[in-house]
């Protein structure tokens, strides 16, 4: 009931936007943090950005409005595992992020280095590099492990809960290594009436890892940021490390990420192409 009411409210909001604001491009995104990012990347005078609370609502709205021949409308969603599975919804006005989510694109820009250099203890950072290697590569190695577990859950249509997993329970504060048993236990505890056969699951994850899936499509940007936050608390911590919770890091990435960075993505090129064939509707 709540989902249908939300969908109806969002459809009415979108229709009202067109009536009140004229021929501006309507950009549907998944959530409020997407609005914060895209309103600095897209033309403020030519676009209206509407959060619709998740990709499922986004796709449903596009499908409904397509039957009404609604024009000047696009959706932008995280790829999640779509590019791994090579499965896409067939909407010409639905666009996917280059990687698993938009946060991975920001992490792969100069913004990551800027944030790290701003907040680290250089002495601890050099020690970490000497002991464990490149910080970004180390964290991506750990998020790949977590991502494989999520991918296994996705492929097998399981109902494991990953929301609000406690990274401090399974991430080593010095090496950032993942304790897979503790990770599985945390997921198990958050999933209602669930008992996971850990031995069998580890075998299945090992099989998945042999496929050498694209790390940037498997890794979740929020997971990366949560592990980076733990690194700032000890492994590479400076005096002000307590301020760098995941929300603060994500905010810093959004502030740093520029249109010049976005222009290097395939998503930008796809949006520009849509813009060129859908005049007078503009995005940039």
What does this structure look like?
The structure is a single chain. With 284 residues, the chain is of the alpha/beta class. 57% of the residues lie in helices and 6% in strands. It contains 15 helices and 4 strands. α2 (32-41) links the parallel β1 and β2. The longest helix has 21 residues, at 135-155. The chain is globular, with a radius of gyration of 20 Å. The mean pLDDT is 93.
Please give the structural blueprint:
Layout: H1 2-21, E1 25-29, H2 32-41, E2 47-51, H3 55-67, E3 73-77, H4 82-85, E4 94-96, H5 102-107, H6 110-119, H7 122-132, H8 135-155, H9 180-190, H10 198-209, H11 215-218, H12 221-233, H13 246-256, H14 259-262, H15 266-277
Task: Please write the string of helix (H) and strand (E) elements.
Answer: HEHEHEHEHHHHHHHHHHH
Secondary structural class: alpha/beta
Number of strands: 4
Whole-number total of structural domains = 2
The dominant shape is globular
Give me the side-by-side strand order of the main sheet.
Answer: 2-1-3-4
Q: How big a fraction of the residues is strand?
A: 5-15%
Query: Helix coverage percent of residues?
Result: 55-70%
Distance between the termini: 37 Å
- How many strands, which pairing sense, and closed or not: the largest β-sheet? 4 strands, parallel
List segments where confidence is low: pLDDT < 50 over at least 5 consecutive residues.
none
Radius of gyration, in Å, reads: 20 Å
Q: Output mean pLDDT.
A: 93
Total DSSP helices: 15
